[in-house]
């Protein structure tokens, strides 16, 4: 039996997760968008070398194969956005933020769930569960803030996450200086 080598992906992080976006505005509703269309997640290469994404697939939370991306490498320090609906993302968050791919009909659970990015036959590269209640940052639950990974520790630990600024900060580093500035 061959074991997949996940060590090449240790610098890859889910750095931001908009799982329960703010309600749609009247203009967004007129465009035919619904709340879940504004979900996104951000992958970040925190390392010093590029990472090849061709063998990776989200297998829990959303179903998305990263080999379908136009650019299947993520450079050192680069952030990559995956959105449920690229058109809705551009409408709300701005067209200047590139969306690398869209996962389509799957929705992130507003109540929390497991997210797993797998290598090959299922070896976990990123595998954690987020929640929508205490001790997790509750302002990320429908109040227009995303969850931002604030540490280098275990992403299953609520203490490693903080709420983003209103509207999130997709495609860039956290805009929060100190996570204690916001009430959770």
Structure commentary:
By secondary structure, this protein is mostly beta strands. The chain is built from 2 helices and 12 strands; from the N terminus they run βαββββββαβββββ. The strands form 3 sheets. It has a 6-stranded mixed sheet, with no helix packed on it. Strands 5-4-9-10 form a 4-stranded antiparallel sheet, with no helix packed on it. It is globular.
- Element string (H = helix, E = strand): EHEEEEEEHEEEEE
Taking pLDDT < 50 over at least 5 consecutive residues as the criterion, the unreliable ranges are: 178-184
Strand order across the largest sheet: 8-7-2-1-11-12
Question: What does the main sheet amount to?
Answer: 6 strands, mixed
Mean pLDDT: 91
Features:
7% helix; mainly beta; disordered C terminus; 6-stranded mixed β-sheet; 184 residues; 4-stranded antiparallel β-sheet
What is the topological layout?
Elements: E1 12-18, H1 26-30, E2 40-45, E3 51-52, E4 56-60, E5 64-65, E6 73-74, E7 79-83, H2 86-93, E8 101-102, E9 112-119, E10 123-131, E11 147-149, E12 161-163
Parallel strand pairs: 7-8
Antiparallel strand pairs: 1-2, 1-11, 2-7, 3-6, 4-5, 4-9, 9-10, 11-12
